[in-house]
Amino acid sequence: MAQLVLGIGTSHTPMLNAPVEDWGRFIERDRMRQHLTREGRPVSYQELEQLAGPGMAAQITPEVFAQRHQAAAAEVERLGAVLRAARLDTLIVVGDDQKELYDDGNMPAILLYRGASIRNVPLREHPGPDWARAASARYFEPDSPREYPVDTQLAMHLIGELMEEFDLSCADRLADGQGEGHAFGFVHKRLLQGADLPVVPVFLNTYYPPNQPTPGRCWRLGQAIRRAVERHPGDARVGILASGGLSHFTVDEELDQRVIEALRAKDGAALGALPRERLNAGNSEIRNWICMAGAVEHLALRHLQYIPAYRTPAGTGTGLCFAHWD
To answer: Fewer Cβ neighbours under 10 Å: the N or C end of the chain?
Structure first.
């Protein structure tokens, strides 16, 4: 039977695609967006800056930016090397779609993609400045669309097995001109560096109420994925990867450490008990990690690095996290 032999968790923020000199420029966009406090209360950027206080200045110096940028780049390279050296036959990618493919007219809570391939297309439009567009463009093919292989056989097996416990949506194609979102593009472009490793994309609606999967349901989904993989005929080596997180756009080190402690302890109850009001906006991508963690209970955590990547006086940024289990 197939075996699930590798688990990976990675942040995928545009900060990882940007040069260090652009980290401070994210303030241009953060000033314009709505934010949440650490308790999940909506606030403006100006209100968030008042809550952060003057101590945040020490977190956003050029020296701190340089150290954290270098550490994050090294982690992306390290995870890519782990992934490429694992001799996988298939990689299950758990990510979220931020209205790149699905919108309010059709917002599946859990969708499993079963097409023969999934397309990555060049970035066509971007509402932000040139520096932000350059960072976003690194998720996607530079010149022309490319079809990446999907393990349709495993996808169909997972759908059949998971339907015993979960009501899944599924898709076997993308509309003309559409391509995978950045959560999946980060894996293809940054970690796999364009390699043709077959994937099984699993979409979780982490962002958009009212049908976000609960944290406990995400954990149970991961457990069910592992059981299903182990019932798949053959001797395939399968990996599972969570793309996204941890906290953002407001960095919440307390929440991130709570998640990390539960990951280290393989504590599904603690992950399932995370307060849902704190798993909104970018924090919501923690659900992808919870799902992956449920699938790798049998594996050992080999490495985990956390980097609180603040970028503005308001404490916005990303709680970067990179980990792998085998």
So the answer is: N
